Amino acid sequence: MHVEFGNSFKKYYKTGNFWCDLYPMTKLILCLTVALSTIVMNNWIYGFSLCLFYFIFAFFTGHGKQFTKTFLILFVIIGLFLEVIRQVGMRTGNVTPMFEIFGWTWYRESFITSLDVSSYMLGFAGGMLLFFDTTSMRDLMYAFEHMGVSHVTSFIMLSSMQNIIDLRKTSVTILESQKSRGIETDGNVFVRAKAFFPTISPLMLGAFSSTEEKSIAMDARAFSVKRKHTFLRELKPMTKIEKILCLLFSLALISMIVWKIAAALIK
Question: Along the chain (267 residues), what's the average pLDDT of each consecutive run of 10 residues?
């Protein structure tokens, strides 16, 4: 058993899902090109169709519940906010009324414009969200280091992202401990603020002590040694098929840009 556990680190790390097992830079290029295509197209049908694809694909990768929860929040914030702002702020070009809400007339032109804007914003955000939901930061930093990025830079980026997650978990733990002591933490904004501000001091002290512990651990692992570092977990390098996919997606994005520019010049 111990031998099998040791031998597992001699193999490339795999999750069993074809998308999650792709090289991080492959996933980044594919997601980024698809996300940027929504900005280039600037069409609500294309943008929202892509958002629907994100939902289906996220469930296929096993991250559907996490993706849906975050993306629906973005949809409400971005979609509804832009719709209201466009209906209020767009004074010219509104000639086709759609319906009225308490005497407030909604126009078709503002509605379509807000759909176009919100679709490419959600399309871009969805592509990036799908990438970060299916790619761990340690794997992304691994890919960056193999591209020549300093291990110090990659550690700072990884540590910063991890600190945000750790601080959030710690704040929830502190609030739960306060609730167990009878302190009111639920209610209106003022009650929540009154319960939250006392947690800032232990939260910051915990963050400082955590930083010190990490620096000691890094020194013990010879982090500052001027030589090539090793990795406990190795990822499979980018294959030829992945390189071809990245090239095809990049060419498709460039073709979209050229087509949109040519169409604008013809008009």
Answer: 58 82 93 94 88 92 89 84 71 65 70 81 91 89 83 75 74 73 66 68 72 70 70 83 95 94 83
Give yes or no: residues 33 and 114 share one domain: yes
| 264, part of any domain | no
Residue 184: predicted pLDDT: 63
Same domain, 125 and 186: no
Q: What are phi and psi of 99, to 5 degrees?
A: -160, 175
Same domain, 105 and 175: no
First to last CA, the chain: 70
Distance CA 108, CA 115 (A): 10
d(CA 256, CA 252): 6
User: Is 106 strand, coil or helix?
Assistant: strand
Residues forming beta bridges with residue 107, ordered by sequence position: 97
| pTM, two decimal places | 0.77
* Number of domains forming the structure of the chain: 2
| Cα–Cα distance, 256 to 169 (Å, whole number) | 43
Q: Which of 105, 135, 165 is the last residue of a domain?
A: 135
pLDDT of residue 114: 78
How many Cβ atoms sit within 10 Å of the Cβ of residue 34? Answer: 21
Q: Can you say how many angstroms the Cα of residue 38 is from the centroid of all Cα atoms in its chain?
A: 16
206 and 117 co-located in one domain? no
- Nearest partner of 41 among 253, 244, 231, judged by Cα: 253
Separation between Cα atoms, residue 143 and residue 28, nearest integer Å: 11
Domain endpoint, select from 135, 163, 187? 135
Strand partners, 97: 107
For the chain, what's the residue count? 267
Range of the domain at 85: 18-135
